[in-house]
Design goal:
The chain is of the alpha+beta class and 252 residues long. The protein has two domains: 186 residues, no CATH class; 49 residues. It is built from eight helices and nine strands. Strands 1, 2, 5, 6, 7, 8 and 9 form a seven-stranded mixed β-sheet that branches. The protein has a two-stranded antiparallel sheet with strand order 3-4. Helix 3 packs across helix 4 and helix 7 packs antiparallel against helix 8. The two termini are 39 Å apart.
């Protein structure tokens, strides 16, 4: 099957190419999967391919090590799906299972979604890695993308990422996925310049998501409420939540 156009945007050098199939049974053998996870892998995944390995011998980027993390290489994993519904769960399992920082490229027909997650050493288990700050983008139709999606895709050329070391490189990639996640609320794709700002941006995005949940809960409560006075109270609460969300989006 031809590669997705997403790889044209990433423009990973041919020197990094691997194209090695990864069999689903490996995740069953080396990862503690719940029954629901096994079902998702069995039913939703058509094929897994280790498309690229970015390491010092394939691309001029240096490894990164400190007390918390070790970024010696980055793997680009292509996951062909037959179903979108459980993509987030599959992404979480794969980020946990493979110790390298990953770019997961999920594909279904002409659409794709990307996922990253930073890795750090586990404090509870020596030698183990913990995946954190996972981001999974919304699905993008590569044949019919809008302006925001195109701006995001245009920003993915890895030649524009920092090449000082793999942590800086991967952080730049994750920041782009975060900015794209924010664009669902802001209506525009906009990068922020400092990693410290990106951390607060991640927290602000999480706060927006929480407000969205509260708004939906409030709307559901209004529909069920039969007492007029309580309906008035709930509508007032809804307006306050919507105002908070608008204010939060302005600084997103």
């Amino acid at each position: 099957m031809p590669k997705s156009p997403i790889y044209d945007y990433l423009a990973v050098p041919d020197s990094c190419g691997l194209g090695k199939r990864v069999f689903k049974k490996l995740f069953h053998e080396y990862t503690k999967l719940l029954a629901a996870d096994k079902k998702a892998f069995s039913e939703d995944i058509e094929r897994i391919t280790w498309e690229y390995t970015l390491k010092p011998s394939t691309i001029p980027i240096q490894p990164y090590e400190d007390e918390q993390r070790e970024y010696l290489e980055i793997a680009v994993i292509d996951v062909e799906l037959s179903e979108q519904r459980r993509t987030a769960r599959i992404a979480e399992v794969m980020h946990r299972a493979i110790p390298y920082p990953l770019l997961l490229v999920f594909r279904l027909d002409s659409c794709c979604a990307l996922s990253t997650a930073h890795k750090r050493f586990s404090q509870a288990e020596k030698g183990a890695m913990v995946a954190e700050d996972m981001i999974l983008t919304r699905w993008i139709d590569m044949e019919n993308s809008g302006k925001v999606e195109r701006n995001f895709l245009d920003s993915l050329n890895i030649a524009d990422f920092p090449h000082t070391h793999f942590y800086a490189f991967y952080s730049a990639l994750a920041d782009r996925l975060l900015a794209f996640a924010c664009s669902r609320l802001t209506g525009e794709y906009r990068m922020e310049s400092q990693s410290t700002v990106e951390r607060s941006r991640r927290e602000r995005l999480a706060a927006c998501h929480e407000l969205e949940v509260q708004i939906e809960d409030c709307k559901a409560a209004i529909k069920k409420e039969t007492q007029f006075n309580r309906q008035v109270e709930l509508n007032t609460e809804l307006k306050e939540l919507q105002s908070k969300l608008r204010n939060m989006v302005r600084v997103l």
